[in-house]
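Dig into what follows:
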Amino acid sequence: MKIHAVFNRDGGTFRTMDIKLFAKTAKAIFEKHGHTFESEIVPGKSVVKTLQNVASEVGEHVLMAGGGDGTISAAADVAWKAKVPLAVLPAGTMNLFARALKIPLDINVALESLASGTIQAVDISTANEESFVHQFSIGFQPQMIKLRNTLEYRSRWGKRLASIRAFAKAMGNPPRFAVRMVIDGIPTERTVSAISISNNPYGSGVLPVPDNVDHGELGVYVAGGLTPGAIVKLAFSVLTGSWRRNPDVDEILAKKVELHFPHLRRGAKATIDGELIPLARDVKIAIHVGELQVLVPKSGFP
């Protein structure tokens, strides 16, 4: 295989390491396994354009992306649209898609596992024109991320601490909003505090990560109008892996979801794979089964 990598030098892990030395190590590992390898090291602001340039190259090749969840989400969108296989190198804080693909989180171990890996077809989802490989969220999560973005942090641990502080602030004033939903053709209307729709349903672990990325269904998670006390209980149930028994959370599996917000506030936000985006009054969400090709460790898939 020909591997062409794009490394976001502003990504979490790459900020604190010799990224040029790492690129040489990656080249040596892939060439040892009989592949050709080249890489680009670029700042965060240039990642998307560089990914698009690499994906448009003539001839069969694999687009490797190294960075956090935002970088990986952007790379998945580019790879999907260009019909180019994607290799995910986890260099962020949570690395949620990498976890779902069973890629080791130690980036040097990840190189070895990917160099001996195989190409598999997995699912990717869209919310209107925006694709996502992890989740689309409205309500509490965007509120928390907006608060976190007002705080300063310089490292992955600093980001985690900022997230905890933002959670504490958001908990005191949880959002409540009306939504009209059509889930696989069935309409309903509710007042809720949060909706998260995942690219494949979450597994049974503590982190919101699917056990399989080729299940072919969306996971729809709806939290009713939450009080601060209910949010604390929900957070505890998430940390202990018992959130499916929480009466404030409904889980529905679906192929298509339509959302309408009759009282949408100006400046309202949603998140796509953890990144804030403007929230449209009407959102159509669908899963595209088996349309994303990914390089994965052989041990991760049957």
Q: What stands out?
A: The mean pLDDT is 89. The longest helix spans residues 156-171. The longest strand covers residues 282-296.
